[in-house]
Amino acid sequence: MILSSIFSSFGVFGLGFIIILETGFLPAFFLPGDSLLFSAGYFINRGELPIHHAILVLGFCAFLGNILGYFLGQLAEHKIESYVKKHEEKLKPSFEKTKKFFAKYGLLTLIIARFIPGVRSVAPFLAGVTNLKKTPFLAVSFISGFIWVTVGLALGNFFGSKLPNMDRVISSIVILAVGIAIFPMISPIFKKILNKK
Length: 197
What we know:
single chain, mainly alpha, 7 helices
């Protein structure tokens, strides 16, 4: 129901905008990227969305999201490094390990991260912070983005033909997924309120 409303109001570009935010803007990690692709596959099954159009728009949006995350990571690099220097004893070993890890496994991490909610938002940001080389980053981001989108749409298209009330199932999954993602952030606030009482 939720994603159906977004699609009805804004079309595939509305779904694409959510993908850009979820993959490229770290605070938006809780947005339902996988469920969104699943839902778009359901719209394809109902004949409301041409599959080639969906793959092209959403795949490119997934690519743009990674570029945004990388760019924001580069912008934050100096602030993060200065913060690490202030807390050198505690943070420098971990920061150096992260840099070495991304230098060695960064490209593989980007591919795997596409299929893991939360990590999908963090990976391009860390790639920017650790200055992963731009050309291989762009190539892997482009390819992995289109693979992720195609798999998600194909699954939604397949199950859309098997389950008659697929849109309601997806909406329930979206609400649950967002709730699980937000809970760790809001639970300390509720604890403080309860402790004051």
